[in-house]
């Protein structure tokens, strides 16, 4: 059975990797493929299509639909490969020395392939507790696609018992991750010839004041590190990530765009930190800009938001995850996942546990070890046995 399971995982992963599902493209061909695969096994899922009609999530229930079940959650989108130095076609699976190379192998089509490969075993087990597959889109650009699906889940009369989100953790059980809030600040200045610079309003220089304040507050967060924290970076982080401004050396810049983010340990800390910065800028920077010209100022726009995850170490879903993973340790990670949205939007207790290493995610020649996929298969096999009792 192990060899058959491994062969199914390889075949499914090769097929999934072949779909170019970078977030700016449709994932419908991949969803069509998954639906055909499930139909061949006698299963049908529920599509949750976005407003454009070009993206869809898929909710699949294996087992009784009138009982609360457990969820295996994964996303179908991948990050771009443009500008990366790949040694082979990133959308063709290559196996070498026990490693499977290709875009998304670790993040996170490997996990999705394992879940799909285990469906025949789910069907053969006569499940008493259902297993749900939650397959989403656009996780990489702000956990976008899972939200409409979770709104549907929240409306269901029966709430899932818990969720396992299969982001790469090397099959370690993750009980917490930081939240994230991203903001775009657009500074509106006044252009003038640089020879009469005092008559203009320099958007870049005012933006520099904001950047300096962000850096100052980031240092304060660093100094407030938690003692004995499970996080590798034991404090919230804050940084400026993108700056665009100016048109020519001899023109006072009339626009500058600054993007910044906070990754907060507390459930809502990331938004609280960025909201405080926005309030500071409106009070300390914008009045001076408007004093110089009434049309000048700052426009703020939210570009990304998800809460932190903080599941209690003794929660039932954590105990189950450790049982299925065959290990007793747990940790927290700095990267974000859809797990916190399962909690905040649908009140579904969640942990993160999946094959592969986050160090491989988003890199050229991304790979996942076959041994990790097999360990994940063993995890799902124990889940199946639990749900068949």
Automatic annotation (TrEMBL):
Residue intervals passing through the bilayer: none
Requisite cofactors: Zn(2+)
Signal peptide: none
Domain Peptidase M20 dimerisation, chain residue ranges per copy: 175-287
Amino-acid biosynthesis found in the keyword field: yes
The enzyme's E.C. designation: 3.5.1.16
PANTHER family associated with the record: ACETYLORNITHINE DEACETYLASE, N-ACETYL-L-CITRULLINE DEACETYLASE
Protein name: Acetylornithine deacetylase
Taxonomy of the source species: Bacteria, Pseudomonadati, Pseudomonadota, Alphaproteobacteria, Hyphomicrobiales
